Input
Amino acid sequence: MFKRTKVTDGTATGQGPDAENWDGKEVGFRKKSKVPGVMITQYIEKLPEGKSHPDFTRKPIALTIQEGKFAFFKAIVTGDPKPTVVWSRNNGDVSDPARYQSKYDPNSNEHTFEMPHVKPDQADTYKCFAKNEYGQAMVTVVLNVIEVGFKMTKAPQQQAEVANCNFKKVLKRRSKVVPKAEEPEKKEGEIDPKFWELLMSADKKDYERICAEFGVTDFRWMLKKLNEMKREREEEQAEFVKNLSDLKPIHINADGTASFELEFDLLDPSSSIYLYKDGEMIPYTKELGDKMKHCLRKVGRKYIFSMRDLMPEDAGFYQLDVEDVNMFSTDFKMVDFLVKIQEVKAMEREDAVFECVISAPLSKLMWFGKNMPLEQGDKYDIEVSEDKLIHRLVVKDCMVVDKGIYAACAGIKSCNAWLVVEADKGAPKGKKSARKTTRAGGSGTDLQKVAQEQQQKLDKEREERKEKIKAAREAAAEAAAAEEPEKTADSGAGKDKGAAVEVERIDKTSVAATTTVAGDSGSGHSAGKASGGAKQDGSHADAGGGHSAGKASGGARKDGSIADAGGGHSAGKASGGAKQDGSHADAGGGHSAGKASGGAKQDGSPADAGGGHSAGKASGGAKQDGSHADAGGGHSAGKASGGAKQDGSHADAGGGHSAGKASGGAKQDGSHADAGGGHSAGKASGGAKQDGSHADAGGGHSAGKASGGAKQDGSHADAGGGHSAGKASGGAKQDGSPADAGGGHSAEEASGGSRQDGALADAGGHSAGKASGGAKQDGSLADAGGEPGITSGLSDILATRGQPAELTVKMNTDCDGAWFKDGEPLKSGGGISITKDANIHKLTIHSCRDTDSGLLRFVSGDLSTEGRITVGDVPEFDEDDLHKFSKPVIVRVGQNAAFKMPFQPQESLTVSWFKDGTELKDGGGVKIVREPNHSRLLLRDCLRSDTGEIKIQLKNPFGAVEATSQLIVLDRPGPPEGPVETVETTSSVIEIKWNPPKDDGGSAVTNYIIERQERGHSLWTKLGDVSAEKTSFRDRNVTHGKKYSYRIYAENPQGLSDSLETADSIMAGIMILSGPPGKPKVVSTSKTCINLTWTPPEDDKGVPIIGYQVEKRKKDTNQWLALNAINEPIEDVNYAVKDVTEGAEYEFRVSAINESGAGDASPPSAMACAKNPNMRPCFKDPEDFLVVRAGNSVRVKISYEAEPPPHITWLKDDEPIAPWINVINTEGMSQLVIPSSKRSDSAIYTIKAKNSVGEAFFDVEVRVTDEPKCPGPVELEQTVYGKVAVSWVPSPDQELDDRLYYVVSQHDSNTRMWKTVADRLFANTYTAHNILPGIEYHFRVYAKNDMGLSDPSQSPTWGANSNRVPISSNGVSSMEISFERPPSILVPLKVHTPPKGYQLYMTCAVRGCPTPNVSWYLNNTCINSDKNYYITNSCGVCSMYILRVRENDGGEYRVVAVNSLGKAECSTKLTVRD
Output
């Protein structure tokens, strides 16, 4: 059962404006919080600086929790001053500290609202208020409670609601698909309600499949029924949602989760959404990132339900409901692989096929290739058979890059296999091989046969269901035809033993009661009327025991009497009928909310109404003898009394359960019947018997008074054993002594009566009042003994609830004593035994309860000892939680492992976690979280060595309890154990053997993979694999004489291990070595290299030669050194030996290498010296011209080659060089250096190299120069019209530098640009052309050499104004114009009101000549030098910039401009806003 939140707009106690400590201020402003769902009210418009209204940084999260668990909400609140936090609920109050506790943690600033042992009536909408003097923040959160089991205390309430016709509260919302634990036993052929729920949520194309699955063949009847149910369902859905569409059934996603989705709009956003699995409600979360298994999230109009960590038990029937109406149903099935996909070996450009068979039809599998999902396309074909049992994946046009692991997933089941693609060796080099039409792979089994067998099995199950439905319909038709009634049997308060025909309605589940057979209708449950049928003698069958919301009565018998209605449960009236003799049948045992009475029998007495359960009145009728029937045992909220018998006595009302009064009637002898055993909230007393005594009221449980009546002899009946909150006393016996009140439990006083001999009766009753012993007949008291002493006293003990506890006091003498608990005396009884054995006193509690806790004290005379007993429970786990925890946690290496164990909150509870017996501590890779109701363990980045037993221990003073689980960390297996043994080697076979790996990685090794490498090759080739049981392999594809290396991998579901490789190569057959090659010959030598050549061996022994090995030996030594390894053979018959030392002598030899190794060595070569041969000097790429600026150093570098080294000589213009010129000679290079050059150093320098072979010369021209000096004055002369001769005096450097020349540039008044008109002029004249009249011309002449241009020589102006004659003013004075003026403000300053912290620009425009000096003032203080203001003046535009405006920046700003002619100023106001 599930208690849902009732969302209302009501205001709970302590929530409204009139609540305590919350004055009703006017709402000021609504503010928006950064946290969605928080409502903020600010009381004032402008907050003081540094103050803030309350707000939530973390709001409480909605919670759905099981009844009895620990529920809590957490919130974090901010605000200045610190807010006060108050919690409330919509429909109730939270003032009970036992149910609601508000806590605050100052360290984490968390406000917690806790509800230990949450109850269903606490399901509600809760509100959290945070308030300070500037405002308040409010947030709501919903608590849903899942109710567990049926509560007996709710039965009377539901009956009352039925009586008031309030069926909505009684008929609690349940899923139409009931849980399996509550599912009634199905009748043969009954249709599962899931059938209709699936049809209403499925597409029409799936109708046929669903019908076939449930065995329904009458499609016309099904469609008619379905349409009716859909109309009703749509009407119900329209009350809560609209636009319901896009229903997608549950499916498995690529990330391993399962989900289904649908779209709709809620009419009321506060409507509750529920999820069911197989009829049982499941909790879920709406928060992203939460670690709950089930999640329901909303994306726009779409609602997506998802499950993670899928397990086989997750399969089932899922439903989504809004309030009381189902919106969507889907069935989640788990299938298994009957035939798994197998490894495929394909050639390049061939198609590869993976195929499998599953146990149930499925339209689509999830295919993955190298951890990526695969879809139908150009590369992949996904095929499904007609029966949807065989699934294939075709990888088209396989390439080497396609190799890897491929997997098929059906729900949480999966299988995988390798695709191995081998290169096409027959393809031409550099070209793509041709596309192949063949297919590789397949399962290797007859898939069609396996699928047919599975299909036959499914068809057989389907036919069996059809036969059952058919048989059930035929049986129902036969039952409807047979209308012959059967005889009824005796009525009573027992269960109805008759057969009832069940009327099944799919849309509305109800049970109709039809009484067509003989038997009692007592205890019948009906929403209508249940009555007993007529017996053959004309009487009606008993209706006793019927449960009805209407009326249940007994029928009339043949003799005219009405059958018994006793035991009937009714919300109306249950009465006994009249028998033939005129008496009414017994109404005893009737359960009614009305009145149950016994009828009158033939003798005139009413029938017994005993045992009736009624909310009204139950009384016994009068019998023929005038007495009333017994009303004993009646359960009533009214009055139950015994009737009067014929002898005048009343019937017994004993055992009646009533909220009213139960009394015994008067018998014929004048005495009242026993009212003993009556349970009443009123008064239970014994009646008076004929002899004048009252009946016993002993055993009555009453909140009133229980007393014994007076017997005939004048004594009162015993009131012993009565449990009362009132007074229990013994009556007076005939001899004048009161009856025993022993055993009475009273909140007042229980005392013994006085016996005839004057002694008081025993007061052995249990009372919270006074208990005293009477005096003995002789008037003496108990023995006082000698000098008593306590040798062994009491101490504090802990007792387990439900277990016995014993306290012992040992005295040194045999003396009496008394026991007290919390100051009250204790007596034997009520689960306590007090014994005395000589001097040992024992107090034994047979079954400890919470009420047994307290301070126990033993008193003997003046001696006493005391000890406290505390009753508690050993910690315990919930069985479901223990079962879940016991399941092993399986993770892969590097993943995190999490364990969680819920438990009931207890005080003094210590939680410890252990791994393989060692306690774990928080820190490092271990994270332990302890919450009030659970504890979590997180192991980060698990290693394979972390596999082991995980144990949690709960410990308190009463004991400890442990729960264990297993952590399994999966990893790749370790490498197979070596070494690799050679079992057999022949010319055609090599057999090897190895041992299994020490560590299988947590899952069994499935197979071994063997690879081979031929010696001299770098490629490893896969030979195949063998099963895990076999640890040997025979390689039959070997060549005689060749050597091979092998490596072996172990494979499990997690991957491949590291390889085990053979230590040495293994030869196929015996070793065959080649003969010696020819003697090596020295081709050439140098100081760094010696070149050799040789001839192949004459006898290669029939084995191909793959290369050669060269060895060297230095003169005067005996050691031969190999120049190359055997696995790196020299393929050619010549080799350049570079590992030599200059001047040393060597000899060499060569060996031929084949598959067996290196053969015999050749004879050694002649001695060869590592030195260069004689060589005439020659120069390498020298430069023949060099230009240097005067003053810089000159460096001439010349590289050469010569053997032996030559003699170097430098000459200047064929003369020896001066002594200040340096010559530096190194090996292969000579360098001439002039430290500081001059123009006189310009010359041709010659290098001469000479050795014994010959000599060589080379000339280098060196020119030392500087930037030239400018030419002399420039003269212009016009020779002819349009031409001007430009001449100039030569530059002084012209004689020193023969590479100097001149450049002429021209400028005219039209273009106003200089352009070069002549370049590389070695003369001193130039003729300019196209010289036009009226235009001014200017010329510039530059001198230029290798260092650059000189300064120009400017010519005079040539053109229009060159011959202009000045005009005189003839004495008339001309007036001069002055531009000077005083400063003036063109654009004044503007008013600014920027917010605090913003930037500000303030500008104005100023004019004046001469340029005025501008100054800025703030409140008459110059700020030109203040660094907080950036002030500029550009062309009269004066600007001031403030980066961040402060409060002290406000005031009057003034700009003052001053020059020699005057002053101008302007001002403005600046106001800074908050």
